[in-house]
């Protein structure tokens, strides 16, 4: 060191700033969005334009103003700003509003609190939080609906199905359910005609829950044509008096462009139904009943029921009455289906 030179000051190390752990950052991010309503995959989003309000947007998408408001944490009279993004509830989705309980929501939508709780994996006495998303019984979960739309497309008019009666080559488009999932009286009348027997002028009203399930089938497969093979049938031949077809509780059908196995598997996801797979007759049987039943019938059109698959050496003779009676109940278990709360309610023909 040269004489007279001042010693250089010692460098002091700056204290290192501790970085918050990644888990803490993630938690902070989640908390920052805690007040925002969750967006399900099947829910739509709408960007507000100049002059729009909640009522106009609700009319456009066919949803209730209170439900649209609750989905976005707003009051029903809240002003909107251009560019604001709103969550639009999908069909069958309800967002909890202040003061609402599970029982109150169930009564409003004509289902039981137990059904609503089961659909959403909640206890019947569960306390709901404002903005909580609930799925009504009879509608698909968002993930299932989104997956179906990706494969089969979105139905142009949810709740409306196109039917083709194979025997007479009639085609008719029918709006089966209203916005709240209730079967319309007009739909019952139209399906009464389309599901009439081949050899009789007699008609019978189809069960309302069956029509609601057909609406779900139509929506799930993108509104593809439902082809009616058989609906109401008179007893006789292989059709017993206890057959679900005789009661108007069953339909044999297929969906245009959908493999039979895919249709069978989707119908088998319903509760309290009978689903029969008829690979050689080319249709799926669906009926409403108290307890689930699944079966495969290898008979051809006009043949006796054949529950066992034919061997390579030739078809096995049809089973005897004793053999058939020893198997689980299939098409004709003889029990009347339990009505859903929507089925027992008054007609919804005026609810637009």
The string of secondary-structure elements, in order, is HEHHEEHHEHEEHHEHEHEEEHH
Nearest-integer average pLDDT: 80
How many distinct helices? 12
**N/C terminus separation:** 96 Å
Q: Mind telling me the C-alpha Rg?
A: 28 Å
Secondary structure category:
alpha+beta
Structure keywords:
disordered C terminus; Membrane-bound Lytic Murein Transglycosylase D, Chain A; 2 domains; seven-stranded mixed β-sheet; two-stranded antiparallel sheet; 27% helix; elongated; 352 residues; alpha+beta
Word description of this protein:
The protein is an alpha+beta fold and 352 residues long. A hairpin with a 4-residue loop joins β9 (273-278) and β10 (283-288). The chain has helices at residues 22-32, 54-61, 65-71, 102-108, 113-119, 142-152, 185-194, 208-220, 244-247, 260-267, 321-325, 341-344; strands at residues 44-47, 85-88, 93-95, 133-135, 160-165, 170-175, 226-230, 250-255, 273-278, 283-288, 293-296. The strands form 3 sheets. It has a 7-stranded mixed β-sheet. The chain has a two-stranded antiparallel sheet with strand order 1-2. α4 packs across α5. 27% of the residues lie in helices and 15% in strands. The chain starts with 21 loop residues before the first helix and ends in an 8-residue tail after the last helix. The protein has 2 domains: 38-142, Membrane-bound Lytic Murein Transglycosylase D, Chain A; 155-344, no CATH class.
């Amino acid at each position: 060191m040269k004489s007279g030179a001042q010693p250089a000051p010692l460098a002091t190390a700056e204290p290192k700033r501790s970085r918050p752990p990644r888990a803490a950052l993630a938690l902070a991010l989640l908390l920052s969005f805690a007040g925002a309503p969750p967006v399900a995959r099947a829910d739509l989003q709408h960007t507000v334009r100049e002059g729009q309000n909640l009522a106009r947007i609700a009319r456009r998408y066919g949803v209730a103003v209170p439900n649209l408001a609750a989905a976005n944490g707003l009051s029903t009279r809240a002003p909107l700003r251009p560019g604001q993004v709103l969550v639009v509830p999908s069909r069958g989705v309800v967002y909890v509003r202040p003061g609402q309980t599970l029982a109150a929501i169930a009564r409003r939508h004509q289902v039981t609190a137990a059904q609503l709780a089961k659909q959403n994996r909640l206890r019947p006495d569960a306390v709901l939080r404002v903005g909580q998303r609930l799925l009504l019984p009879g509608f698909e979960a968002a993930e299932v609906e989104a997956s179906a739309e990706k494969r089969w497309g979105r139905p142009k008019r949810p709740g409306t199905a196109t039917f083709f009666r194979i025997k007479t080559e009639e085609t008719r488009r029918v709006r089966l359910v209203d916005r709240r999932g209730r079967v319309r009286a007009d739909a019952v009348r139209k399906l009464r005609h389309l599901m009439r027997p081949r050899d009789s002028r007699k008609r019978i009203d189809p069960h309302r829950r069956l029509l609601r399930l057909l609406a779900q089938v139509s929506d799930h497969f993108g509104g593809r044509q439902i082809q009616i093979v058989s609906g109401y049938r008179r007893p006789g031949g292989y059709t017993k008096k206890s057959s679900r077809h005789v009661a108007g509780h069953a339909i044999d059908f297929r969906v245009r462009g959908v493999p039979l196995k895919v249709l069978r598997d989707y119908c088998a996801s319903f509760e309290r139904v009978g689903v029969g797979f008829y690979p050689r007759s080319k249709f799926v049987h669906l009926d409403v009943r108290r307890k689930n039943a699944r079966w495969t019938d290898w008979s051809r059109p006009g043949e006796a029921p054949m529950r066992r698959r034919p061997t390579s050496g030739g078809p096995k003779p049809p089973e005897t009455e004793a053999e058939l009676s020893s198997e689980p109940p299939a098409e004709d278990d003889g029990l009347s289906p339990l009505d859903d709360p929507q089925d027992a309610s008054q007609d919804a023909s005026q609810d637009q």
